[in-house]
Amino acid sequence: MKGVIFNAVEHAVIGLGGDDLWDDLLESAGLEGAYSGMGDYPDEELVALVTAASQKLELPASDVLKTVGRAAFSFLASRVPDLVAQVSGPLELLSSVHDVIHVQVKMLYPDAKPPELEHQILDDGSLRLTYQSHRNLGDLAIGLMHGAGDHYEVELDIAIEKEDAATGTVVFLVRELAGVRS
Amino acid sequence: MSEAELARLQRRLDRERKAREEAERIAERGLRDLYEANRELDRRVEERTQELFVAQQQAQAARVAISSFLANLSHDLKTPVNGVLGMLELLQEEVQGKQAHLWVSSALESSQRLGKLLSRLLSYVDLESGAGALTSEPVSIAEELQQVADVWQPKALHSKQLVSFDSLLDAEYFITVDRLRFKELFDEILDNVVMHANPGMVRISAEIVEESLHVSVQDSGPGIATDTLQTMLQPFRRGDDSSTRAAAGSGLGLALCARICEVLQFQLKIDSAVGQPTTVTIGMPAAVLSTSAELAVEHV
Known about the structure:
The structure holds two protein chains of two kinds.
Chain A: H1 3-29, H2 43-57, H3 61-77, H4 81-86, H5 90-108, E1 116-121, E2 127-132, H6 138-151, E3 156-164, E4 169-176
Antiparallel strand pairs in A: 1-2, 2-4, 3-4
Helix pairs in contact in A: 1-2, 1-3, 2-3, 3-6, 5-6
Chain B: H1 3-94, H2 98-129, E1 137-140, H3 141-158, E2 161-167, E3 174-177, H4 179-196, E4 200-209, E5 212-218, H5 226-231, H6 253-264, E6 267-271, E7 279-284, E8 289-290, H7 293-299
Parallel strand pairs in B: 2-4
Antiparallel strand pairs in B: 1-3, 3-8, 4-5, 5-7, 6-7
Helix pairs in contact in B: 1-2, 2-6, 3-4, 4-6
């Protein structure tokens, strides 16, 4: 996994519980945690970090991923400020992740394996987003989507239409909740 | 600060340092890869450029060889063809009987066509290789074009065409030009019109457009398709490349016109569409025009 994702997680954890929490998690996971944004690190290290957080906070791993994802959005958004400024809302941003952001990622890191994302705008304006990755990080994706909502000050309703753990596929239905945008 | 806290701070510091060093290593590797890729790209550009240069040289050598071969061939063929022509002309006067007369006429006509083709080929090859030097003399536009019309009228009558020259010039204009090439240009255009155009009027006109002289030859159809217009100025391309073509021709006439225009620095333009008249316009630059023969001489 790209180091930038670990940086985003680190940023999120420190934002949520301070430097000590990050230290605690690294220590209990038995990791050194020297992540460079451009580097590549084993997926298992993320699993170990999530497990450590889950044990420490006595929360299910899925909740940890959602919380970390939500808090990590701002860090990732800061890497593509122009794109985030260009679009008017979270659904538009989510629609462009695969064709714009992941294309840039692959350009910089040809060996990167970002998740496959397919989007479809439905008649009622909501978004059907199909996520597929061998990493099975659908919960992190949910957290990041909520983080995108927070950025544009729009509350999102995210439902799971279909899920297949064997292929790592999750189909999300994302809609903006009316009247929340301030 | 407790020892444990100090140790933790030390670990944070180590972590940051290690991450930074890792980032530097990755950046260095990236830069090195980029440098190598650039060098490889340079090398390939250099290689391709060299290949292109060689190909260009080969093409040029091939062109020279073809030109020289064609020039020699045409030249060698001209002598016997002229011999045949002369003999046939004599024979035409002597031969008795209607059928025999027809056969000789037919042989004469074919030989004349062959002679013309050889002349064109020689002329084209001369222009291509730049072998024939150009001369310069003042030529009266109206006089020369009237002469073209007069010379072509009898031949055009066979195709039921009437050739006229209309001068739209407000004064007598002279052009400083290679007279033979100038004449050849209009002969080729008229030859093409007489061979391919419908019966009707063939109008040669001359006028001044924005200081340059435009000489147009307009026929009475049947017009030329757009895709044909784009290729017909290339040598050996005929307007109708199909094997069922009705009219004879080498496909060299218009290519020769284009080449002459290029050499004389004239603009050649052909306007046409299927079912419409075709207008061939030759634009001649103001620099070679004068309103008196004396001034025209100064251009020489």
